[in-house]
Amino acid sequence: GSESSPPAADGANESTLKVGTIGIAADAALQSAIDKGYFAEEGIDVEVSVVANPPAGIAAAQSGQLDLTYTPSIPMLNAKSQGVPLTVVAAADGYPDDALEQEDLSQVDDTGLYVAADSGIDSPKDLEGKRVSVPARKAQLEVTVSQLVKDDGGDPAKVNWMVLDPASALQSLKDDRIEAASLVTPFTGQAASAGNTLLASPGVEFFEKGAIGLWVAGSAQAESKHDQLLGFQRAIYKANAYANENLDESQKQAAEITGLELDAVKAGATPFWPVEVRLEDVQRTAARMTALGFLAEEPKLDQSLFLSE
Amino acid sequence: MKRKALNWSLGVATPVLLVAAWWAASANSMNTFFPPLSAIMVRFRELWLFDHFGSDILLSLRNLLLGYAVATVAGVVIGFVTALVPVARWALDPVIHFLRGIPPVALVPIFISLIGFGIEMRVASIALAALFPTLIATVDGIRSVDTTLKDVSSVYRLSRGEKLAQVYLPAAGPQIASGMQVSLQVAFIVMIASEMLGSSEGIGAMTLLAQQSFMIPDMWAGILLLGVIGFGANLVFELLKNRILAWHAGSRRLANS
Amino acid sequence: MKTQIKPAAVGALGIAGALLLWQYLATGPMNGSALPAPGHAIAELAALLATGTFWADLADTILIALGGLAISAVAGIAAGLLIGSFAPVRYATMAVLEFLKPIPPIVVLPLVVLVLGPTAQMSWVLVVIGCALPIVMQTVAGVHDTDPVARDTARSYGMGHAEILLRVTLPGAMPFIGTAMRVAAPAALVVAVVAGLLGGGPGLGQSIYQAQAAGDFPVLYALVLVLGLLGLVFQGATRLAERRLLHWHESYREVVL
Amino acid sequence: MTATAPNSFRRAAGRHTVQEDPMTVRDAAAALPRLEVTALSKTYGSGGSAKCVIEDLTFTVNTGEVVCIVGPSGVGKTTLLKCLAGLQPVTSGAAAIDGRKIDGPPAEMALVFQDYNRSLMPWLTVRKNIRLPLRHLRLQAAELNQRIDTALEAVGLTHAANQYPWQLSGGMQQRVAIARALAYRPEILIMDEPFASVDAQTRFELEDLCLKIRDDFGMTILVVTHDIDEAVYLSDRVVVLGAKPARVLDVVDIDLPAPRDQISSRALKEFADQRTNVLSMIRKPA
Amino acid sequence: MTATAPNSFRRAAGRHTVQEDPMTVRDAAAALPRLEVTALSKTYGSGGSAKCVIEDLTFTVNTGEVVCIVGPSGVGKTTLLKCLAGLQPVTSGAAAIDGRKIDGPPAEMALVFQDYNRSLMPWLTVRKNIRLPLRHLRLQAAELNQRIDTALEAVGLTHAANQYPWQLSGGMQQRVAIARALAYRPEILIMDEPFASVDAQTRFELEDLCLKIRDDFGMTILVVTHDIDEAVYLSDRVVVLGAKPARVLDVVDIDLPAPRDQISSRALKEFADQRTNVLSMIRKPA
Ligand SMILES: Nc1ncnc2c1ncn2[C@@H]1O[C@H](COP(=O)(O)OP(=O)(O)OP(=O)(O)O)[C@@H](O)[C@H]1O
Ligand SMILES: Nc1ncnc2c1ncn2[C@@H]1O[C@H](COP(=O)(O)OP(=O)(O)OP(=O)(O)O)[C@@H](O)[C@H]1O
Ligand SMILES: [Mg+2]
Ligand SMILES: [Mg+2]
């Protein structure tokens, strides 16, 4: 598994970066950066701790308890729009630019919207008035599925959102307690093998391309540990590139981190580790969230969002 | 009399002072996570008075009441059985204490597949968690009933029902009441936790959602509301207890009252 | 001796019954769901026992739970004695405590994580928040239950406030404090795990989080088994400690036959 | 319970009057052993901490008799009463009522505890404390209330009926415990130092009350007391316990003429003789 | 505490001997009012449920005196003692020690409670119960143990030192409470029906012990009792309380010659006279 020892209070010197992750397959790049000594090359020392969810990580990052944390762009934008000062350090995972051209979107998207085979739901619009599970409210899956519904001519506000952990979502789908479940790997695979139908791949349809998972620091931290974070950026991009090139090795690492069977990892979507974050990608996401009503007003985003020399 | 007045003014002054201190200290706060109290109060009014009163507050309170009622009745009944029937105690004790060490989150999937994630699940999880403090306090209360009182009831050949209702229950009453008070607190906590799953209705769900989407003043408003309701619930509990257990307060009052 | 064997035997029967129920649930109504058969979970547990990280995590969890419990006990009992014994203190703190009581650890968790980070200290603080207040409440109830004649006796012998508190009120309140500790001990364990599960503190909570995230249910329930057993051990230890401290009390007096 | 007994008893004032019946209940039942204690012994605890409190105790109490037990503090009197009341199992030997071995609280018996302050339910008022054991006798409301009122009046606590025990003085609490037993009207009444905390005047009245209910209801009464004068005044026989473990030193028959009277009986020469007799019995082994 | 007082007291056996000092402590201090009760009144509760228990009570106790208080059950004797011990606030009037008004438990006083069984800590053994109040006197270990041993021996409980109160008989518990007060060696000792549950023989011994410690340590002793003989035997003066709310009916000076002796003193004609005197005082208002 990943290193999860708590950061030692006294050992935290200048060159140490405390990094929060949520323990997912995308951490493979981080792990290989550690293993291959990319961080050491930059003269930084990385301490990894697992946080339960992105908001907890963001909270810890903004207060300086973590130097940086993994978060998808949507919770980051939620926080940003509420005035939490955050700086994006690097890309963690995402979609390649040609993602939408794929034949089978589930091969690139690690999220999926499943309905029971005999549910009679054929398109996202049919979800109106139905019970749809999400792992958390106002987070990535609710936003992306809402977009699907809206694009299909439906009203996302009419969907009956249910917060359920993945295991309960699968069970409830089977027991007809919900009509649709939005899931993340490895549960997408389990949903498929249980005979459910994939209705859509909401992630890639919403984001289209670019970085989704981000390494984010509190703005204060971005200033005080500027150099180390730049070092982190360089090292992680090196690792991201390496991970893309050596897919087998990174998938093996992902299996180790998540405790899954290698076959299950391989059967899921192909992961992608971008080596840059583009402002336009983030702006597109923010605009869509605003249009859907998840953000009260579109936050003004410019290059200052990103850590730079 | 003077003393009483002093006590009451202390009781009123301390919270007022604390709130004033909070108000002053947070007035110009720029910290996202510790917003000014004034901003919190604005959200408090907007959210709870009375926008979500019927839809969320009443819903949560109904679950709380149902779960708590089940927990206390079951806690007292099971407590009596385990305290007075050794075989039941030996058989149930290990299982009960085994279950208590397990975080409810880990049991949620089992719960959900057995009873779903609707109201039933919320009420059941509140009841289950709030059961134990009452149960344990009841067992302890019954086991510490004065031997002389037990002897008196034997000598006068009180029937089993009389012994239970007229001797054990009142004698264990103070301890049961304090267990029930802890149960109330636990029920409250689980009420909020139970709203983490399923449809996002209720005070707990709204507060957690506010927290997850960084609507920090909303979160604080939720915390305040929880505090106010908890305070009120406890007040009602105290009043009832003081009525029912007046004999206890009287008999235990310090001699210098 | 015979009386010792009998409870153990009936207790074992109780556990066997629970295992059978589990087997039935896993293979019957919940077949194909997250709940593995008990045999499967136990096999997974055996595998876990062979890994070093498991033991390190276990040690972390126990340390946090026990440490937090110890702090809560010392602080909670001290506060409870003061609040219960001195009316002004009671009036001054009542409103504030009542207000804080219903605010659950899950809601303050992000705030604590914010201040302390996903660290062991964070877990300690949460355990203290979760356990201290019930201990305070039960201690206050215990103080009110001590015999006023005993306290008057001490006063008439010119014993100071502190001495009376320590030597008369505290032992007199012990039965209630014992109840509180037995309620709090498993709760400390649960909060220590939840702090890992939701807040990223070290220990078994993280292992459970990872098993849950990966959908690895046999491991998840193997860990749940460990926690249940730990709960039993905690319960047994508090009982034992209580038996030593309360051997004089009605409920522990040797039955004379 | 004797069916012919009158329904109420008046408060005996200084002097108690015998019934008008040509033959008192007591004479009729005389020499019928109601309560038999045979070779009774009792040990507290077991193994290393075992403590033999009573060893080989034998005596009987006849129907309608008043028997007092005297003996040094800590000798085992309370323990004996608890065995008789079926609250403590005996270690060997037996106690029997009408030949039936006692192995649980017998229906016809009531006990006034030495720990009077602990034997009252603090959550019940005086009246309700007295009513508690009467509930299962299924009396009619009128009779129930009448019994309670009579008992309260007999112990002089009518005015305190609605107070809680912890609002009463020690002596008043003790009298509530006595009233509870009186209202229950057991056939056998056992009292453990019942008048220890009441004043001299009330004590006299309660002693006479005791004799009166014996006569009125044919009750068999067993009293533990430390007051030798009281033992002699009340008793038909005095059982003197001594030595540890407790043994019967002597059973002294008291032959004072009935009816007894607080002033004249105590002035009799026989009274002084018996008193000296019992006292010397007690002092002997010390 | 009188510095010249011997460190230990032997168990008085039936007869107590006066000290060798040419002038006893008691004579020296005579007529010095140690304890003064002036127009004291006490009401329990307030408003509608107010209950006036003591009204306008006045009397004094001199240094080295033994004063007994007698009066009917429930008249307010215990309440009075609690006021003297500073455990209950007085409603009006005052109680004072050496002229200092009592408004909290005075350091020089110890109280033996009527509820002896509740005044012992069930979690402490007999020995530790006695030691409990001695801790803050900061005695040396040797003196501490010696005091405890002497007190235990004086009440005849040496053998029960390591038992818990609930393993003792009622009389033994009462004697533990007395021993605790003795070991504390207060200047003023107040006892509420201290010998109610002990047998006649022990009672005599404890009465003599009481007189002895008064002589040895110059203690001032105030005792509530229901036993008129005991009151006359022990006292220099008897305060007779009566009526509700409690009032002083009379203060009877007892002029029995010292040293007193259980057999010869009680046989004196003065004894019988005083006894009748007090008894008639008590009976008068009934
Ligand atoms: N806590 C209390 N609240 C109300 N009334 C009380 C309380 N304690 C005592 N009393 C009342 O005060 C009166 C006097 O009680 P107290 O205990 O002083 O009597 P006493 O003279 O000691 O009697 P005894 O000889 O029976 O012990 C009684 O009528 C009693 O009912
Ligand atoms: N629960 C107990 N466990 C052990 N020993 C006990 C217990 N109860 C009583 N004893 C012992 O038994 C002996 C007799 O006690 P008991 O109460 O019968 O005496 P008693 O004759 O009633 O004395 P008193 O006149 O003082 O009330 C005492 O030595 C006491 O220490
Ligand atoms: Mg006894
Ligand atoms: Mg009294």
Brief synopsis:
Chain A is built from 13 helices and 10 strands.
CATH architecture descriptor of the largest domain in chain D: 3-Layer(aba) Sandwich
Q: Give the SSE order of chain D as H and E letters.
A: HEEEHEEEHHHHEHEHEEHH
Which stretches of chain C are poorly predicted, pLDDT < 50 over at least 5 residues? none
Rg of chain C: 22 Å
> First CA to last CA of chain C: what distance?
15 Å
Biggest contact: B-C, 83 and 85 residues
Q: How many β-strand runs of chain D?
A: 10
Please report the number of helical segments of chain D: 10
The string of secondary-structure elements of chain C, in order, is HHHHHHHHHH
Q: Determine the fraction of residues in helical runs of chain C and give it as a percent range.
A: over 70%
What small molecules does the structure contain?
adenosine-5'-triphosphate, magnesium ion
Could you say what the CATH topology of one domain in chain C is called? Answer: MetI-like fold
Structural class of chain C: mainly alpha
What's the CATH H-level superfamily name of the largest domain in chain D? P-loop containing nucleotide triphosphate hydrolases
In CATH, the architecture of one domain in chain C is Orthogonal Bundle
